[in-house]
Amino acid sequence: MWELSKLMGWIVFWGFIFALLNFFVKQINKQLIVPASKKNKKIGEIYRPIMKFVIRFHKPVGAFVSITIFLHLFLMYTYAGPSLTGFVGMSIMLSVFLLGIYGTFFKKNIRGSWLKIHRVLAFLLLISISAHLLMPY
């Protein structure tokens, strides 16, 4: 079970990294690909399928990771005890997830303040996960 709990943690980590790519692929598209595509359409033709893949799976991966973290929490708490850095990370991830749910199903304004908070919390979560990996307890 110890190995399964560690595996769940790594699934959460890599799933979160994938979900975070959503922000970066959109920024790269906006700042680099669109201007470059005006000169050479091949660049956009190559990049857009990658971007669409990341965008398409952002929400399901975020939901999966948010559920998987509870399994990781349960297993780690059972076999290793409580972890302050893990609890902080899970709390931030839950906030990011709930804001995503709010924005997707209730607000629907993609330029609202909820999105800015969602993004800031996602980057705080990156710091929190890094701290958890360096200091698990």
Structure summarized in a few sentences:
With 137 residues, the chain is mainly α.
Q: What would you say this structure looks like, in words?
A:
- The protein has 137 residues and is mostly helical.
- The protein is 89% helix and 0% strand.
- It is built from 4 helices and no strands.
- It has helices spanning 2-37, 41-80, 84-107, 113-134.
- α1 runs antiparallel to α2 and α3 runs antiparallel to α4 (113-134).
- The longest helix is centred in the middle third of the chain and has 40 residues, at 41-80.
- The protein is elongated and about 55 Å long.
- The two termini are 19 Å apart.
- The mean pLDDT is 93.
Kindly list the characteristics that best describe this protein.
mainly alpha, elongated, about 140 residues, about 0% strand
Strand/helix succession: HHHH
| Helix percent band | over 70%
Alpha plus pi helix count? 4
Shape: elongated
Helix and strand content put the structural class at mainly alpha
The N- and C-terminal alpha carbons lie at a distance of 19 Å
Q: Tell me about the biggest sheet?
A: none
Stretches with pLDDT under 50, minimum 5 residues: none
Relative strand content? under 5%
Question: What is the CA-based Rg, rounded?
Answer: 17 Å
Please report the total strand number as a whole number.
0
Q: What's the overall average pLDDT, rounded?
A: 93
